[in-house]
Design brief:
Radius of gyration: 28 Å
GO molecular function, one term: guanyl-nucleotide exchange factor activity
Number of helices: 24
Largest sheet: 9 strands, mixed
Strand order of the largest sheet: 15-16-19-22-25-28-31-34-35
Shape: globular
Helix content: 25-40%
Structural class: alpha/beta
GO cellular component, one term: eukaryotic translation initiation factor 2B complex
Keywords: Cytoplasm, Initiation factor, Protein biosynthesis
Organism: Linum tenue
Family: Belongs to the eIF-2B gamma/epsilon subunits family.
Number of strands: 36
């Protein structure tokens, strides 16, 4: 299939962004129109074109059993191989030469790149470097150094990276630092991302990350993952504090795993064979080495997108971000690789050509349907991705799941938050509970229930762990069946295993259910595509409340911004600014959390737990949560279709009916309820004036649903008695209702 590069089409034949998407996402899309090129001196650029090293091996086992048969970079992400997102971004960002290193399943990667047409792009060269015995990123970089193909500064990424950031500023900063200091060997791209204080991981499912950064120079001084410090406490060397008059400590940064490197990085790996892992060995090794004096700096991005697919949870998160267009122009309805362009419809639905959908079938919001898929009567699919050539029977329910190509799902099946690989057959009335992963060509028997977080494969689970934890693929000593033998040997192998396969997965089933990994069930739910279970969140919250030994830092040593300044005095104005910034960030994150819950149809109890963890991380009260959540709830009603005030009032009644329990729990105090009324007044006067004519009707609705109590309404009325007329607009509008409350109160007395 022939396709055009991003530069050839100039981003001009893209479909417009639908108005229902967030404004910041639209802005991001606008920023990306027209490929950006790194602005450098013409002679230097001609001498050293911008190069990149793309690691097509993750050197981990996190995507097993899937990666026993297919390399991770070729796994579909919203129906496009992961590596295509990385290559399309590098090409659009001005990289001219990419060296792709692959080891496991290298033949599959090479065949795909040859057939996809990436090697035919003008001004964009893609070359393969193959190895059969590298077991780490360190080995890969040492081999690349031996090939002598890198001739200047280069971009280092993995083939599971999704981004739309411009490299211009990051490369420019790196080069300018190098001119002043030859020891500045790396610039690491980071982005703000506040982790959950309850489960201590980011929305990508990665461990909470602690960084110490010089706020003036942006030099990285410390890099520690919480997983290496279970109690959550890290210690800084006295020399670090002595040598750096000002240090900012952060636990709200996400490592994007995009590095701008000098040539010395490759030679450092060659000189130090202990360097295997990029972060755990190389970065931390340079930070503690005070002899050579090499330095690493950071470049923080704000409006752009950058993330790496590290585990199943980040696979789910990044898929949703793509569907919601945060990664524009790398979205389903824009052709940026050999992908089949889909049509964007209302509520974030994408449909490819040649789909056969029953009239009674329902396709919900934020769902992608691939080419040639057939959907039967009364089936419901929402917040999911369906691949090409799938057959979905009648009365099937699919929620929050990822169905790859040529999958058959028979009548009456139920799938919730699962991954189903190519060629899988799910027989009638079977159920996949949350977190299930079905590898290639597995068969689930009729009416069989696959337990939550199960991984099922035609491979038997290795009987012993691989000798190196970084190894992505199983070798002959690991106990895994050779995929060629299992898949292609024919009926004889199936006859040998038929009894065991059927016994595990129901009548007519084929596959092996793998047992939990070494980390047990906790690791499964932490890194799953399924929402975090309510009971796990509840346990984590209870542990926080009971733990009185949480590390506390003295106020005199640590400012609210996280900046350590030995001997400095408190600055009230700075603290005030930091508090205001935190409030804005909290409100934005609360709004995003609520909208995500509404889109994903998350249970109210789960949202309450998530909001409690969010307010703890920002040190906010339940009342702060109430105000932050009320706005997106009312906005949801406003954005629903309506032509009259009566229809708008019905929309409000609908959303309040669904989410009233959230506010009952968070707005228990009378003062919080008064704050909510005042927040509503402010909205009616400024951002959502459409509600102003029906203020009193909505106030009564909030009272009826027990979100706002009688005492709060009467006290609000009392507080407004001496106010200016302009501040009593809504009190006057609600006079009859308030009078009714007072008379009812007197009758009770």
């Amino acid at each position: 299939m022939k396709f055009r590069s991003l530069r050839q089409i100039g981003f001009t034949d893209y479909a417009p962004i639908s108005s229902f998407f967030p404004s910041s996402a639209v802005a991001m899309g606008a920023q990306k129109k027209g490929s950006s090129r790194v602005t450098e001196d013409a002679e230097e650029l001609a001498r050293n074109p911008l190069q990149a090293i793309l690691l097509a091996d993750s050197f981990t086992t996190k995507f097993r059993p899937i990666t026993l048969e297919r390399p991770k970079v070729l796994l579909p992400l919203v129906n496009v191989p992961m590596i295509d997102y990385t290559l399309a971004w590098l090409e659009s960002a001005g990289v001219e030469e990419v060296f792709i290193f692959c080891c496991a399943h290298s033949r599959q990667v090479m065949d795909y790149l040859e057939s996809s047409g990436w090697h035919k792009q003008p001004n964009f060269t893609v070359a393969m470097i193959e190895s059969n015995n590298s077991i780490s990123a360190g080995d890969a970089l040492r081999l690349i150094y031996e090939r002598n193909v890198i001739h200047g500064d280069f971009v280092l990424v993995s083939g599971d990276t999704v981004s739309n950031m411009s490299l211009t500023h990051a490369v420019k900063e790196h080069k300018e630092r190098r001119k002043k200091d030859n020891n500045a060997v790396m610039t690491m791209v980071i982005k703000k991302s506040k982790p959950s204080p309850v489960i201590h991981q980011s929305r990508l499912g990665t461990d909470e990350l602690f960084m110490a950064i010089d706020p003036d120079t942006k030099q990285l001084l410390c890099y520690e993952e919480r997983g290496e410090h279970p109690r959550g406490a890290i210690s800084l060397e006295n020399s670090l504090l002595a040598d750096n008059p000002s240090i900012s400590l952060h636990n709200d940064k996400q490592d994007c795993y995009i590095d701008i490197c000098s040539q010395e990085v490759l030679s450092l790996f060659t000189d130090n064979f202990d360097y295997q892992h990029l972060r755990r060995h190389f970065v931390k090794g340079l930070l503690v080495d005070d002899i050579m004096g090499y330095k690493i700096f950071t470049h923080e991005i704000h409006s752009s997108y950058a993330a790496r697919i590290d585990n199943y949870r980040s696979y789910d998160t990044i898929s949703k971000d793509i569907i919601q267009r945060w990664t524009y122009p790398f979205v389903p309805d824009v052709r940026f690789s050999a992908n089949c362009t889909t049509k964007l419809e209302r509520e974030g639905m994408y449909k490819a050509p040649e789909i056969q959908q029953s009239r009674s079938a329902h396709i919900g919001p934020f769902t992608v349907i691939g080419k040639g898929t057939r959907i039967g009567d009364d089936s419901r699919i929402t917040h999911s991705v369906i691949g090409e050539g799938c057959t979905i029977g009648s009365n099937v329910s699919i929620v929050g799941s990822y169905i790859w190509n040529n999958v058959t799902i028979e009548d009456g099946c139920e799938l919730r938050h699962a991954i189903v690989c190519d060629g899988v057959i799910i027989k009638a009335a079977a159920t996949l509970e949350p977190g299930v992963v079905l590898s290639f060509k597995v068969v689930i028997g009729r009416e069989f229930v696959v337990p939550a977080y199960s991984k099922v494969s035609l491979f038997q689970q290795p009987t012993a762990q691989d000798s190196d934890e970084e190894l992505e693929y199983a070798d002959s000593s690991s106990g895994a069946i050779d995929p060629l033998v299992l898949i292609y040997q024919g009926s004889y192998m199936h006859l040998i295993n038929s009894f065991l396969l059927a016994e595990q997965l129901g009548p007519g089933g084929a596959g092996f259910i793998w047992s939990a990994c070494d980390g047990g069930c906790e690791e499964e739910w932490r890194h799953s595509v399924a929402p975090i279970p309510t009971d796990q969140l509840a346990k984590a919250l209870l542990a926080i409340e009971e733990d009185s030994e949480i590390v506390k830092v003295s106020d005199s040593a640590l400012t609210p911004s996280g900046e350590l300044e030995p001997g400095s005095d408190d600055d009230d104005s700075d603290n005030m600014d930091d508090s205001n910034v935190d409030t804005v960030d909290f409100e934005k994150e609360a709004e995003a959390t609520f909208l995500r819950a509404a889109q994903d149809n998350i249970a109210v109890d789960d949202l309450i737990l998530e909001m409690n963890s969010l307010r703890l991380s920002y040190n906010k009260s339940a009342g702060d949560c109430t105000g932050a959540l009320f706005y997106p709830m009312m906005k949801l009603a406003l954005e629903s279709p309506h032509n009259t005030a009566v229809e708008l009032q019905k929309n409000v009644a609908s959303v309040v009916s669904k989410w009233h329990k959230l506010f009952e729990v968070l707005a228990k105090e009378v003062d919080d309820q008064i704050e909510l009324i005042m927040k509503f007044e402010e909205m009616c006067l400024e951002s959502t004036k459409e509600f102003a004519p029906i203020f009193s009707q909505i106030l009564y609705l909030l009272y009826e649903r027990e979100i706002i109590g009688e005492e709060a309404i009467l006290r609000w009325d009392d507080e407004r008695k001496d106010a200016d007329e302009s501040d009593r607009v809504f009190v006057k509008q609600s006079e009859k209702f308030i009078q009714w409350l007072r008379e009812a109160d007197e009758e009770e007395d």
